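Moderator note: this is an archived Q&A kept for reference. The question asked for a predicted structure of one protein chain; the sequence and the answer are reproduced below.
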Amino acid sequence: MSMRIQDKTKEIEKYLAEFSGIIPSDIEEYKKSIKTKAACERYFEKIAEAITDLAFLIIKDKELRQPEDDKQSFDVLAEENIIQKSLAEKLKDLKGMRNIIAHGYGKIDDEIVFHSITEEMEKDVNEFILEIRKI
């Protein structure tokens, strides 16, 4: 594994650790603090960007086919059996949620975002890191 891939993996783990320190314990706490919501959304964005960067670093390192867009990078990793197809789908969903938050498409549903950041994102990103460490 290249040093750049290792560094990016460590960066993601750092973001996850920092993020876990600011996540509120429940949806009501999340909804009532604009600062907490903004911080959580920003970390969500940073982590989503970093895992996409990591996917592209692996694609370049392994000289795999170039994806047409960010989401497709996870499909390329699945096609090459670097990650499971089910994980690729979850990471694509995470990237899609990041785009909704970052670009403000429509009204952001606090409950969906809270569920994503507390129930799915950390688990899926940690699974991604574990799979990457196997290569």
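Archived answer notes: Helices lie at 3-20, 27-32, 34-61, 70-79, 85-103, 110-133.
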